[in-house]
Design brief:
The complex is a heterodimer of chains A (256) and B (300). Chain A is built from 6 helices and 17 strands. Chain A is an alpha/beta fold. Chain A has 2 domains: 4-96, Elongation Factor Tu (Ef-tu), domain 3; 107-255, Rossmann fold (3-Layer(aba) Sandwich). The radius of gyration of chain A is 17 Å and the shape is globular. In chain B, 29% of the residues lie in helices and 20% in strands. Chain B contains 8 helices and 16 strands. The longest helix of chain B is centred in the last third of the chain and has 15 residues, at 272-286. Classes of the chains: A alpha/beta (256), B alpha/beta (300). The interface between A and B is large, with 34 and 41 residues.
Chain lengths: 256, 300
């Protein structure tokens, strides 16, 4: 799959929850090749910050050749991005990694936790099978929830109990008596670990999207490895590259 | 105008190469960079057997740099010979294989295995700060550096570059030791041991606690060390440490480097190597330099 480095243009940017920003970016080729679950590398303008920030793709608009990223301010780099305005130029590389399988037949939960929620939105648009979104938030700042509702039924869990089920996404599944054949998920590692186990116990297929600190984003530096059940093709150990073989893996392929 | 340089009898079309560990074996970056435009590709370190590397997180960004503790994850020499060398041979560039090991025997095994392979130069990594055995143990004591150089030279068919660590009191002592041991060239500097602490999580930013600092932050240290080594030994020097553009590369060349390697800057821009080649060419035109060799060590 082709990858491109582009000087792209910010189309719009807005703050959609405390510290959570949504940015539409106009691209030349990247949007045309992107699939749900892939990510882009976003480069800072400030030269003291060398490494690109890997950010998942939230939406793809091929007609307008544009991409949407929804990200949390996690440090100085993402803080810099949050200050960009429409018309600003932004260096990006993408699309990177492998997305979710789109040909699944059966019923599926689309599960997002925290800043793992955004990539599930484009997946909700593109998956043809029967879906339900199960979304975990910290509190009642339920960013993107109304947008998910355009494409699928949504249930919510909040850590503080201010909306939906108090607890995590598995609590919300149980609370609502939901059943499905598969899980597609992105979120913090403890959530993914619990979902991997839940899927195994309930005989469900599961695909999970992982994250790790990255340097190159294209598979060369070997910073972002995860423990894999099988020997990996690159180094013949048990380390798959999240940026290259992932970020989406069948849950049984990785140890968390 | 001549951009060709010579390292231990191997002619490079230009002085720009990649720094080991930042460029894999070229495959991933070949989607961006035309490898034919580079003087050489220096591969990620390869050992006699596969190495799994360190736990994650393996990297952290720092001001103007980064810390890494990958731990030399690599597929071992068999996969490397069958997969990576044929890949690189498709391109018109020199191949420099970086060799790592935990013991003298490990290094020798890899070097012997490469003897009849179409590689141009060997770079012996005695300076990785992130593995517990071997690696830097050979690179911080002059006697050990001399011994490993002699042993490798005896086994090697290709010319040998010894890669030096900056984590020593006097790098010229190490350069003299490997010269006495028969090295054909030296490369410097490897990363500087560093540490970063995440004050919010109250944890080390990389799982290994310490890691190698690289990037523009270390460039002045690297230029100084290249200058010192250039004045201490007769060996050709491959200079590296924070090179992000042609101006940086020219500093190293003027300090005494025959060739230069681009490392961490590949992460900041995958096209950096090609841009450095083009920028050196522009500099030579601007100042009417006919032969790049005139610039090597020109600042005394």
């Amino acid at each position: 799959m082709a990858k491109y480095k582009e000087r792209a243009k910010v189309i719009s940017q807005e703050c959609i929850a405390p510290d959570i920003f949504s940015m539409w970016i106009g691209t030349k080729d990247i949007a045309m090749e992107a699939v749900p679950g892939q990510f882009i590398s976003v480069y800072c303008r400030d030269g003291s910050r060398l490494l690109p920030r890997p950010i998942s793709i939230c939406e793809i608009d091929k007609e307008k050749r544009s991409l949407r990223i929804v990200y949390r301010i996690a440090g100085k780099g993402t803080n810099e991005f949050s200050g960009y305005n429409a018309g600003d130029l932004i260096d990006i590389v993408g699309p990177l990694g492998n997305g979710f399988p789109l040909d699944f037949e059966g019923s599926a939960f689309l599960i997002g936790g925290g800043i793992g929620i955004p990539p599930m939105l484009e997946l909700a648009k593109q998956l043809k099978c029967e879906t339900k979104a199960v979304i975990g938030y910290r509190d009642s700042n339920m960013f993107l929830k109304d947008e998910f509702e355009r494409y699928t039924e949504v249930v919510v869990a909040t850590e503080d109990g201010s909306a939906g089920t108090k607890g995590n996404v598995i609590d919300a599944i149980k609370d609502n008596g939901l059943k499905a054949d598969a899980i597609f998920a992105c979120g913090p590692t403890p959530m993914l670990r619990a979902l991997k186990q839940y899927a195994a116990e309930n005989n469900m297929k599961a695909w999970i999207s992982l994250e790790e600190k990255m340097a190159c984003g294209i598979g060369a530096c070997l910073a972002c490895v995860c423990r894999s059940t099988e020997v990996d093709g690159h180094s013949r150990v048990h380390n798959k590259r999240i940026c290259k073989e992932g970020p989406v893996f069948p849950a049984e392929d990785v140890e968390l | 105008m001549n951009m060709k340089v010579n390292i231990a009898g191997v002619e490079l079309k230009n002085p720009v190469m990649t720094a080991s560990g930042t460029f894999g074996s070229g495959q991933e970056y070949s989607e961006f960079v035309d490898l034919n435009k580079l003087g050489a590709v220096v591969t990620k370190g390869v050992a006699n057997v596969p190495w799994p590397g360190n736990p994650t997180p393996r990297i952290a960004e720092t001001y103007g740099g980064m810390i890494n503790a990958i731990g030399l994850q690599n597929p071992g020499i068999d996969v490397f010979v069958n997969r990576d060398i044929p890949f690189l041979r498709q391109y018109d560039t020199k191949i420099i294989v970086n060799v790592c090991g935990r013991s003298k025997e490990d290094y020798i095994e890899v070097v012997e295995r490469l003897a009849d392979e179409p590689v141009d130069l060997l770079e012996i990594n005695i300076s990785c700060p992130n593995v517990k055995e071997g690696g830097i143990a050979f690179g911080q004591k002059a006697e050990a550096a001399y011994d490993i150089t002699r042993a490798v030279k005896k086994a090697a068919k290709q010319p040998v570059i010894m890669k030096l660590s900056p984590n020593v009191t006097d790098i010229t002592e190490m350069a003299r030791a490997v010269e006495a041991g028969g090295a054909d060239a030296v490369s410097l500097i490897n990363t500087i041991t560093g540490m970063k602490i995440d004050i919010h999580r109250r944890k080390f930013a990389v799982a290994n606690k310490t890691g190698g600092l690289s990037g523009p932050a270390i460039k002045p240290v690297a230029v100084r060390m290249v200058y010192q080594v250039a004045n201490a030994v007769k060996l050709p020097i491959i200079g590296m440490g924070g090179i992000a553009n042609a101006e940086d590369a020219l500093e190293f060349i003027l300090a005494g480097a025959t060739a230069v390697s681009v490392g961490t800057a590949n992460f900041a821009d995958p096209f950096t190597t090609e841009k450095v080649v083009a920028g050196i060419e522009e500099y030579m035109i601007k100042y009417g330099v006919q032969d790049i060799n005139e610039l090597i060590g020109a600042v005394k």
